[in-house]
Every structure is written in C-alpha cells, then in structure tokens.
Amino acid sequence: MTGTATVVGAGIGGLATAIGLRRAGWNVTVLERRTELERYGAAFGIHPTAQSALDRLGVGDALREHAVPYRDAHIRTPDGTSIARLPLDRIERKAGRPELLISRPYLLDALLAGLDAFGDVPVKLGERVTDLDAVAAGQDLVIGADGIRSAVRAARLGDRSGPREAGTVAWIGIADFESPVHGETWGSGRFFGLTPVEPGRTNWYATVPGATTAAELRGFFADWHDPIPRILDTTDPATWIRYEMRHLHPALPSFVATGARPAPVALVGDAAHAMTPNLGQGACTAILDADALTRALAAAPQGREGVAGALHAYDRERRRSAQRTAFASRTLHRFMSTERTRLRNAAVRLLPG
C-alpha cells in the first residue's frame, strides 16, 4: 500500500524507516527536534541480519564503503589475560559475512544519502513535537522514532514505560591510533571495551559505577593492561562523551496503536525498546524494526484496515525479539558489572571458544 506518513526522529531508526516507506511509494516527512543530527563518534556494530536489512533498503554498499570487519576479540581480565573469545567467527561462518563496525557519522551519511536520492523527503530540523494530534492530522501513519524519551510513545501509549537508570556511568570516545587488541576487559564493577572503527583509529567505551570526571575515570583504569591507560592518557577528554546508562522499563505491551486518531502510530528503535549497550545491538534492532515495518506496509492493502493489519504484523515480528534482546543486554550488564569476579570469570571460561 501507499500513503502519507510523518516520521518523528531522524536517528538511525527514523531515517531507515523513512527510506523504507519512500521505497514503497509513500509520501514521507521527517521531523527532528535537534537543530543538527547527532554525529558523535561512537562505533555501531552491524550484525549480518541488519546488513541484509540495509541491503533491502538500498544502502548496504554505502555501509560497506566505510565499515570495517570485526573478527578477533577477547574478554580479558584487567592484567590482560584472555578468558574467552567473542563468537565473531561463528557469526561469520553462519551468515557468510562478518560483523561490521562503522562510525555513527558514516552510517548517518549513508542513510541520508539514501533518502536524498529520492529528492522529495524533507528532513525538518528543530521541530519539537508538542501536539501529536496536529502532527498526525492528514496523515495515514505516524512513526515514533524519537528515542527513549519518546513524545510519540507518551502521547499514544502513556507514560507507564519510561527511562530507567541502570546505575552505571558510561563513557565513549575515539583514539587516534589502532589498538593491538580488541574486545572487552572485565574488572570488579567496571569494564572497558576496544573495537576497530576505521583505519588508524580505535573506538573505546568504559563503564564505572560513579566516575564523574576524566581524572576519576583515568584513575579507575590506571593499572589495567595496555593500551587502556594509554588511550585515556593520550586522548582529549573534551572529545569524550559521558552519559548515565538507561533502558526502557517496563517493556511495552505493544509497539503500535492502531486505533489512535487521527492516525495510527508505530514505534521503532529506542522509542520502542531502548536497551543498555552491552550487547551492542541498539542500532541493529532499530534497523530491523524499520525493515520489518516497511515490508509489512508495502505488502498491505490500501486503507486504514490495511495499515492496521500491517502494524499488527510488524508488532508480531519485532516486539518479542527486540524485547528479548533488551532483556539479555540488561542481564549481561549485571553479569559484567558484578564484583564477584571469581565466579563470573570461571563461568566465562566455560563458554565455547
């Protein structure tokens, strides 16, 4: 079917949804509350399933132009001892392609280029939604892709579900040299991650219960294995990003509101299932949401009943899967952050190599 839709939010999920809708013949407008898109330099891991979804959206080649494969990574103790390998080789054998890592700005640019190719999809910046009824007037569908504090979700599904703190402070940054090792190092109540992101650079992230300054963060990891102290000592703290880790809780009973007036609503990405970053699946789940939603709409018959049927099909395909991923990520966060390191490390050593 075709129709007219407004996508609220111009992040990964919102832009991917807009592309999918436009490819299906919809008239689409994108509204973004920020005056410029978020381009901070975190690396996204893109699983082969999400790569296939981006291929269907027509932006897979642009993704691969700037992405790097992720093939060798370990879980280590603070002294550098490897206790397990991440299952990246099994992912590649099963899918026939490796996990990819890409900088957020490159992925955004790929999606924006895919949208710009149509030439008729406005992306309106500085548009904060305060009256969803006014936004929905004259539309066949509204997509809430506006993050963990989604105004669309609150307006149509209520405020029972909302941001909940995970109790941990996270820091992310990019170092201008290539780390000799990749993966994650797990200590007592804190951990540090290192991934490739592009030639000559390394993406890093760290979590601690309560570090509030760069000096405190450096102190927490000063005696950990190389290159962790070196990365923190030689990168400018002004380029680091600090945030309180949050997730959406409790889980939503539905990702859609088909009876909403004047137009039905569907949620994608963090608006539907914001999760802790421990599994590195936030971008992937948003892309898979966009793909599933727009495939269902493309196959639906015309009219409001067709939209409703497509939204229910999307909810059936994505809600339980995305919520399982979010739950697994929160569980892994607690496991990684425990202070009972001896039991945890013994359990990790039993994982298949």
TrEMBL record:
InterPro entries, per database record: FAD-bd, FAD-dep_Monooxygenase_BioMet, FAD/NAD-bd_sf
Oxidoreductase found in the keyword field: yes
Matching SUPFAM superfamilies: FAD/NAD(P)-binding domain
Protein origin, superkingdom: Bacteria
Pfam families associated with the record: FAD_binding_3
Keywords on record: Monooxygenase, Oxidoreductase
PANTHER family on file: MONOOXYGENASE (PTHR13789), PUTATIVE (AFU_ORTHOLOGUE AFUA_6G14510)-RELATED (PTHR13789:SF309)
Protein name: FAD-dependent monooxygenase
Any one GO molecular-function label of the UniProt entry: monooxygenase activity
Residues of the FAD-binding domain: 6-325
Species, as recorded: Streptomyces durocortorensis
Keyword Ribosomal protein: no
